[in-house]
Amino acid sequence: FNAGMLCLVAEPSYEMKYKILQRYYENTIAAAPEAGDDSLLAAYGGDGGHLTDEHFKHMAEVSGTNIRELESFCERCAGEAGDREREGGELTFDDIDTIASQYFDTSAKKINVQTVQSVIEEQYGVTHEELIGPRRNANIAKARHIAIYLAIEMCEMTTTAVGAEFGNRNHSTVSTSYKKVQKMIQEDRTVTEDLKSLRDKITLRS
Predict the structure, then answer these.
(1) In the predicted model, what is the mean pLDDT of residues 102-128?
(2) CATH pick for 113-205 out of 1.10.1200.120, 3.40.50.300, 3.20.20.70, 1.10.1750.10
C-alpha cells in the first residue's frame, strides 16, 4: 500500500464462478469432514448430495458475484441435493433457481447480446452495421472491443458464439478484443468506471 500499488479488482466471470463452485464443492463439501468444520452443512448436521457438472454450470449462470455468497449457495444446493437423493429423486434446475433467488437479486435476469450491442452503439454513436462490420477506425474499433468484452462477461457466451454475433468473427479475433480491453483496464482506471456505467445501463434494459 505504501508503494501505491494498483491492483485490479474485477467481478468474477461465468467461468470463474463455475470454477469457484466446482472447487469449493470438491475441496470442502465432498471432502471428508474434519474436526472443527464450520460449514453450513456441518452446523446443521446435514449430508451434502452429489452435484454434477451440469449443476455447476447452471449454478454459475444464475448466481451473483459475491464469492462468500457463492460458497454458502453451493452448500445450500448440496444440502438440497442430499435431501432429494434421500427421497429417491435428484436436484433439479428449478431447485437451484429457488435457492439462488434467496441469495442473489439478479439471479433470474438474463442478458442477451443484442442488448449489449444496442447500448454500445448508442454510447459510441455507431450503427449496428459498423459495430459488426469490417471497418477499423478508432471509434468503431474501440466500441467493438468493448461490446465483445461485455458480451463475454455478461451474456455467458463462448467466444465462438460471441464471434457469430459480431460478423462471424473467429475465436482468435474475439479473444484479441477481450485482451485489448483487459489491457485498457490496467492502463487507465477510468475505463473501469466507464465499464461499470455500461454494465448498469445494460442490466437496466435486460
Answers:
(1) 84
(2) 1.10.1750.10
